[in-house]
Amino acid sequence: MTETAGGGPERRTDRGADGGVDGGVGLTALLVAAARAIETHRHDSLARDVHAEHFVRAAPASADWPVRIQQVPDGDGNPLWGRFARYFGLRTRVLDDFLLRSARAGVRQVVLLGAGLDTRAFRLDWPPGCVVFEIDRAGVLAFKHRVLAGLSAAPGATRVAVPADLRSDWAAALTGAGFDPAAPSAWLAEGLLFYLPGPAETALVETVDRLSAEGSALAFEAKLEKDLLAYRDSAIYTATREQIGIDLLRLFDLGPRPDSAGALTERGWSASMRTPFDFTLRHGRGPLPEPNDALEGNRWVFAHKVRA
Ligand SMILES: C[S@@+](CC[C@H](N)C(=O)[O-])C[C@H]1O[C@@H](n2cnc3c(N)ncnc32)[C@H](O)[C@@H]1O
Fold this sequence. Notes:
Blueprint (H helix, E strand, L loop, with lengths): L25 H15 L11 H7 L20 H26 L4 E5 L6 H4 L7 E6 L1 H14 L6 E6 L7 H6 L8 E5 L8 H13 L6 E7 L11 H10 L3 H4 L8 H7 L2 E6 L1 H8 L14 E8 L3
Helix pairs in contact: 1-2, 1-3, 3-8, 3-11
The site of S-adenosylmethionine has 20 residues, from helix 1.
């Protein structure tokens, strides 16, 4: 469905069980939206998303979550709405910059893998002719469409929603929606890969490579830890579990992870790996390392296809 296609089917599919935002992994899209809302209202915000708080308020599961740090009794001392939300704010900014750099370099098609409630099609200053494809499960996209339609929000690029399960073959859905594999593209997997089984991540990276012309770029977030359960008692996982009932470690796939950066370099991509803390230092705000830190193994990978 495209943004210009009108209201679309109004189905009550925003349940976790059938792929919506009210439970399961779909709820994590609301967590990121709440973090972006909080970041938006900070005086020193790294990224602004005026739509984020509307998603939070519209979903029964999150309607009473904070959307400003002032609504959190312990403020920045709260591991979830302070440090973890700031992490998402920093991640949003860094990946905004990545996509805009790609667009300035000439890319005109962007694919958001596991797009969730990402509103980059609306927020960013796209050059004329850009198309943003948003792939997520049908229920998440239906909820997003319903909220944005109520706000009369207008995208700054052509926005194409592509409902698909990224664990199965999604390439035909994307090309069927108008994606052109012969033209360079920018891809983003923000907060996605660790929810997928390892073989599904391997297949996803292979598909991205197959659909990417020379000059394409991909950014993704990975976790390096061998045993994520070692961080079960970390401050951010504990606060996320206890304050809003999201047990991230039950949602992550805990099986072995592929080396996706390595796989890309074998296929003609250059890849650089950064820690979030590198960008905290660059921007002068964001999370810094702490003991028993669930963010310790997080890496942001930036890859460019230098030869097809
Ligand atoms: C943590 S959210 C991140 C959303 C978005 N990238 C952002 O940063 O705002 C994870 C998203 O991945 C989506 N997702 C997880 N597994 C998926 C799958 N198998 N197929 C499609 N989407 C999936 C979820 O529905 C959810 O919207």
